[in-house]
User: What shape does this take?
Amino acid sequence: MKEKRVMSGMRPTGKLHLGNLFGALENWIKLQNEYKCFFCIVDWHALTTGYEDTSDLQQYIREMAIDWLSAGIDPEKATVFVQSHVKDHAELHLLLSMITPISWLERNPTYKDQLKQLKEKNISTHGFLGYPVLQTADILAYKAEKVPVGEDQLPHLELSREIARRFNYLYKPIFPEPQALLNEVKTLPGIDGRKMSKSYNNTIEISDDAATIRQKVSKMITDPQRIRKTDPGNPEICTVYAFHKVFSDFEKRKEVDEECRKGSIGCVDCKQRLAEIMIETLNPIIQRRQELTKMPNYIDDVLHEGKKRAEEIAEQTLDEVREAMNLV
Assistant: This one.
């Protein structure tokens, strides 16, 4: 499978949190050993909803690269690069937009949902409507056969297949139809029990140190019915136990579950126990991140080398596209 290509990306809109780690990065780390992987920091996509303020964009790009590498993405195994560094993405986006019906874009359920959710932002723009075409260009530039996605991204990938089919039908069969690799997701709530999200300010970041992790865990919402330490609790509705499910082994989870239901462990003690388990688990990432933060030239080198490797393949694809469309 190592010759088969995988393409995926993340928008640099802020610090990555543990939901990103367990929702995507863990899968990427496995995939880089099985496929020829292209992992892209998609800064142009960040502009689709955040075009009005780009003051932190370069910092977010660098922080994302450090997060990826500290989590275990290996630039020797995968191509790590920034979307805007490879201009072929923009050209392929333009050419694919010529053949993509507007009705296909307008029926995208995510487009309609985002317009409602982000109604305070002015995102009725050409760029926001057409971002699935740019996403398709990101994938097809590398002729990626597989794309790791969550279920919410499946409509986007279906649109990418439709665009690939339309191009192949109109001109020449150049593109594979990319198939989904559904992410194995470990679900983590935010510290307030809601979905973990930067917009809710309830995240634990990949970049958090041990002291910050302890402080955030201490604020986690627990079973509201437990008034006294000795009251029996229900771990299934407790944010702390949701984290134990991800970070603790079976025996520790079982112990926490039984002690909580009997009222033989208090929430403060349970949180302290969780924090230490999390710190022990995340310590290799924390240590690696601290090292990478002191190596700015290394990060530049990784992104530059990734740009060169990505460009080599994307340019070959664009040569075929231009020829097929009689643009040369």
Observations:
- Strands lie at 5-10, 36-41, 78-82, 146-149, 179-182.
